[in-house]
């Protein structure tokens, strides 16, 4: 339903979502809505296959240059040189692959450790379910300490206060109430609505779910976070260097080949000589050296409880002077506690 549900009468919301506030949804209807709206999760559930993840490591310009050099070495009859280059490329790609694969698995394991649950009405009976099974139209029963699993409207409150710092940055709890709001009210002032990621500080209440998963306000933020991250300066530098070497190799092959032709030398010998020079200038150990050093950096970060998903971001971390983070509600609790007091 429309995200601007805060200014709709509750009766209209009940009608649009086809639900009785005293009974909630039936199990059968909840299953149908799960099939229609999907699970109440922020990710789309698609995982990058290990094969695709490994193949991605081979798209680096320097790797492509080395693979081309190995093929040319086979063409020149130098099988040992070709094998060495293949082994170097394989080691480099494997190191980067396992780092990204293990980091992804670690993130999945961390997520699976926390299976939050919420109480709601199913067939008129209070039932505890996992938050990912919440669907639009569900009637939640809220108590102190609960985290709102989706967006919705409050249909009853009893001294209910909610911390919305994750959305607004405001660390003080907001008092919630039942009623309609008129006009274009900013999110921080919507006293009749609750949003995914907020948590109940005190009181009790009931809320009807109007949006779940990626259709929530928090889901909109998650969509932006899941977009392809920009390439790091380290990666850009390696790519520029790889493209430069490829350009030099092609120009060298053509130049030496045509110079030898003007000197009336054998065409095949001229071509072989030009290709040999091109193979000789390729930095065969550069990918392996880069991957090994970045892997060591990732291992040291892991010892500090930091998961590195992509190796090339380590260069950015190394050049970081100040880290700015939205810490309220994540790193900190958004509150002040007295540790000690002294009489003056």
Please tell me about this protein's structure.
It is found in: Membrane. InterPro entries: ATPase_P-typ_cation-transptr_N, ATPase_P-typ_P_site, ATPase_P-typ_TM_dom_sf, ATPase_P-typ_transduc_dom_A_sf, ATPase_P-type_domA, HAD_sf, P_typ_ATPase. Residues 4-78 form the Cation-transporting P-type ATPase N-terminal domain. By secondary structure, the chain is α+β, with helices and mostly antiparallel strands. It has 2 domains: 10-40 and 134-225, Calcium-transporting ATPase, cytoplasmic transduction domain A, CATH 2.70.150.10; 50-113 and 228-319, Calcium-transporting ATPase, transmembrane domain (Up-down Bundle). Helices cover 46% and strands 13% of the residues. It has helices at residues 10-17, 27-37, 50-56, 61-76, 79-113, 165-168, 217-225, 233-262, 267-280, 286-303, 313-318, and strands at 117-122, 125-130, 139-142, 151-163, 174-175, 193-194, 199-211. Strands 1, 2, 3, 4, 5, 6 and 7 form a 7-stranded antiparallel β-sheet that branches. Strand 1 (117-122) and strand 2 form a beta hairpin. Helix 3 packs across helix 5 and helix 4 (61-76) packs antiparallel against helix 5. The longest helix is centred in the first third of the chain and has 35 residues, at 79-113. The protein is elongated.
Question: Notable features of this structure?
Answer:
about 350 residues, Calcium-transporting ATPase, transmembrane domain, Calcium-transporting ATPase, cytoplasmic transduction domain A, 7-stranded antiparallel β-sheet, alpha+beta
């Amino acid at each position: 339903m429309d995200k601007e549900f805060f200014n709709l009468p509750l009766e209209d919301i009940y009608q649009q979502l086809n639900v009785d506030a005293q009974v909630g949804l039936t199990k059968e209807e909840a299953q149908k809505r799960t099939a229609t709206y999907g699970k109440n999760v922020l990710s789309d559930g698609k995982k990058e296959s290990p094969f695709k993840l490994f193949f991605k490591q081979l798209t680096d310009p320097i790797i492509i240059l080395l693979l081309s050099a190995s093929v040319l070495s086979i063409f020149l009859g130098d099988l040992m040189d070709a094998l060495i280059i293949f082994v170097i490329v394989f080691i480099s790609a494997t190191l980067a692959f396992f780092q990204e694969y293990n980091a992804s698995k670690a993130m999945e394991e961390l997520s699976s450790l926390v299976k939050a649950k919420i109480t709601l009405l199913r067939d008129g009976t209070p039932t505890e379910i996992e938050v990912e099974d919440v669907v639009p139209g569900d009637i939640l029963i809220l108590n102190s300490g609960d985290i709102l699993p989706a967006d919705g409207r409050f249909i009853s409150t009893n001294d209910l206060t909610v911390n919305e710092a994750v959305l607004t940055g405001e660390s003080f709890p907001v008092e919630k109430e039942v009623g309609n709001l008129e006009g274009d009210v900013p999110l921080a002032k919507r006293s009749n609505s609750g949003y995914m990621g907020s948590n109940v500080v005190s009181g009790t209440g009931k809320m009807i779910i109007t949006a779940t998963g990626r259709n929530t306000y928090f889901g909109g933020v998650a969509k932006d976070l899941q977009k392809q991250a920009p390439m790091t300066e380290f990666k850009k530098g390696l790519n520029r260097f790889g493209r430069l070497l490829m350009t030099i190799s092609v120009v060298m092959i053509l130049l030496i080949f045509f110079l030898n032709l003007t000197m009336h030398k054998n065409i095949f010998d001229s071509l072989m000589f030009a290709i040999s020079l091109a193979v000789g200038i390729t930095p065969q150990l550069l990918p392996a050296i880069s991957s090994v050093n970045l892997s060591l950096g990732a291992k040291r970060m892991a010892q500090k409880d930091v998961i590195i998903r992509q190796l090339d971001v380590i260069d950015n971390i190394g050049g970081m002077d100040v880290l700015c983070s939205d810490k309220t509600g994540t790193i900190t609790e958004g509150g002040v506690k007295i540790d000690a007091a002294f009489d003056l």
